[in-house]
Specification:
Number of helices: 12
Helix content: 25-40%
Number of domains: 1
Strand order of the largest sheet: 6-5-4-3-2-1-14-15
Distance between the termini: 34 Å
């Protein structure tokens, strides 16, 4: 088949599929309930199969985003999430892999047909400094786009983000940061030292509950905050696999990289620790995310999990980008699907 014919067929296929792709809406077919979309389940280490940390939570028809690592906007598009429908972004802490995608998300929301003003970003102490800096860095970009597309499509006053600080992590161990229309969102302290503040987030809606750990090692505060939750989404690092990277870097004559691999296990939960916290909190289901290191071979999932399935006997999943967990009101089951 000639290139010309292949090109014509490709154009026809794209032309036929574009209307459905343009109108795709992850939220459109979901019933009332508490839904979690795993937008990004990776970490700072490059992983072709996973975007950096980003979780979408849909409750009462509202869309909340927890963290927005690099690639978040592209990953949202892959998950058929309209950035214009974002109620707010909630940041757990300010590591680059949790905030690096914020500007692109804000730009996509700004020019979305369903946008309702500037993107609200909620976070602990430091959030105003972070958002002010990002707004300044992208000011010229927004000016160019407003001049190019016009104020109707890209109004200058709607560009950028608005920071809203809460006190969890500085003055309080935990704080209810939103409680309206049946949706309750609680931020609580976790242990990601030397990162301070570092938080986890709990969502309660319709008698169901989801906890997102943020980045943490084993900590009693996470156990307390996760008490009887339906689902715990916990970061996970496999020390045995990271040790392989450390040794390989040292053997390759890269001591700086080896030092980084030696350092990271002390401020992330291992799969075993995540399982212990879930068991002690009485959590019903556990999903591991922020996967470190990347798992290029399916067979590595067993060494990654280790004995975590013996420590926690409920359903335990390795989350993947595009996973959806649906928790219907006043029920007990979780429906898992893919976007």
């Amino acid at each position: 088949m000639s290139k010309g014919i292949r090109g014509k067929i490709a154009m026809k296929l794209v032309e036929k599929s574009l209307p459905a792709r343009m109108s795709a809406d992850c939220m459109g077919g979901l019933p009332d309930g508490l839904h979690v979309v795993m937008i990004g389940t990776g970490a700072p280490l490059p992983d072709p199969g996973r975007s950096q940390p980003c979780v979408g939570v849909i409750a009462g028809g509202r869309l909340f985003i927890v963290d927005a690592g690099e690639g978040a906007a592209s990953a949202m598009n892959a998950c058929a999430i309209d950035p214009g429908r974002i109620d707010c972004v909630i940041l757990t802490h300010f590591h680059s892999d949790h905030i690096g995608g914020l500007p692109a998300v804000a730009i996509q929301r700004w020019v979305s047909d369903s946008s309702q003003g500037r993107l609200r970003v909620l976070g602990p102490k430091g959030v105003r400094k972070v958002i002010k800096g990002l707004n300044r860095a992208y000011k010229l970009d927004s000016d160019y786009r407003a001049a190019h597309h016009g104020e109707t499509v890209a109004p200058r006053e709607m560009a950028g983000m608005t920071a809203e600080r809460f006190d969890a992590g500085s003055k309080l161990e935990s704080e209810v940061i939103l409680d309206e229309d049946g949706v309750k969102v609680t931020a609580f302290v976790v242990d990601h030292a030397p990162v301070d503040p570092a938080l986890g987030i709990r969502f309660d809606y319709g008698g169901r509950s989801v906890v997102i750990s943020g980045d943490t090692t084993y900590t009693e505060s996470l156990v307390r905050a996760s008490k009887d939750a339906d689902l715990l989404i916990c970061d996970a690092l496999a020390p045995n696999l990271v040790k392989l990277l450390e040794d390989a870097a040292r053997d390759a004559g890269k001591p700086g990289r080896a030092k980084i691999f030696a350092d990271v296990p002390d401020y992330h939960a291992s799969p075993a620790q995540a399982a212990d916290m879930a068991r002690e909190a009485g959590v019903k289901n556990l999903a591991l995310t922020h996967i470190i290191p990347p798992l290029p071979l399916k067979g590595l999932e067993g060494p990654f999990l280790g004995d975590s399935k013996e420590r926690f006997t409920g359903p335990l999943w390795l989350a993947a980008d595009g996973d959806i967990y649906s928790l219907l009101p006043d029920g007990s089951e979780i429906k898992r699907s893919q976007v």
